[in-house]
Design brief:
Radius of gyration: 29 Å
Number of strands: 10
Strand content: 35-45%
Number of helices: 2
Order of helices and strands: HEEEEEEEEEHE
Distance between the termini: 79 Å
Strand order of the largest sheet: 3-4-5-10-9
Structural class: alpha+beta
Helix content: 25-40%
Shape: elongated
Length: 188
């Protein structure tokens, strides 16, 4: 009859094992993608308006110099954001009073949210959005002037911050365009 050919028994088994591993890998990747998408869908962020201690932007006069940095926005009850920053010269914390062209918003999260949003300032003369990171980690610098509490007008302005947020020892009046750094894209 002719020569006999030796047949490899392992080839179909090896191919099946490789195909099985590829299919398993694809299934695992799809499961991770599904869990990730389901987790994102389960959480949401709703932005709420918050009051801010402000002054009329038209009242600003003079030159602004950088007096503070690391602006933070602490939420006080009821729905008020209290801006504070670190004074450049002394390192002390000062209350910051912004122009009335700024609007404060804070995040109300529900469920799992992948990123941790922080309170924001929106508006100003250029319509910017700044996000103030927690615990003084923000990159927002404040240009303006320190308030002199011996001056009755400055003392009255400082009292607006105290009435909304509690007592503070030092106060900064931020120029209407005196916030820089920490700008983020506007959410759609």
């Amino acid at each position: 009859m002719g020569a006999t050919v030796k047949v490899r028994d392992e080839a179909p088994t090896s191919r099946a094992a490789i195909v099985g591993l590829v299919i398993t890998g694809v299934v695992i990747v799809l499961v991770f993608i599904g869990v990730g998408l389901a987790g994102r869908a389960a959480g949401s962020v709703e932005w709420r308006d918050a009051a801010l201690p402000t002054y009329p932007a038209a009242d600003w006069t003079g030159d602004a110099t950088t007096v503070a940095d690391a602006l933070t926005l602490d939420l006080a009850v009821p729905d008020t954001l209290c801006p504070t920053a670190t004074l450049v010269e002394t390192g002390a914390t000062a209350a910051v009073i912004v122009a009335d062209s700024w609007r404060g918003i804070w995040p109300l999260t529900s469920g799992f949210v992948a990123d941790d949003p922080a309170p924001r300032l929106q508006g100003g003369p250029a319509g910017l959005t700044y996000e103030a990171a927690e615990h003084g980690a923000s990159e927002i610098a404040v240009a303006g002037r320190l308030l002199d509490l011996a001056n009755p007008d400055d003392a009255a302005l400082a009292e607006t911050w105290n009435a909304a947020c509690g007592d503070a020892d030092a106060f900064v009046m931020a120029a209407p365009d005196g916030l820089t750094g920490g700008e983020i894209g506007i959410e759609g």
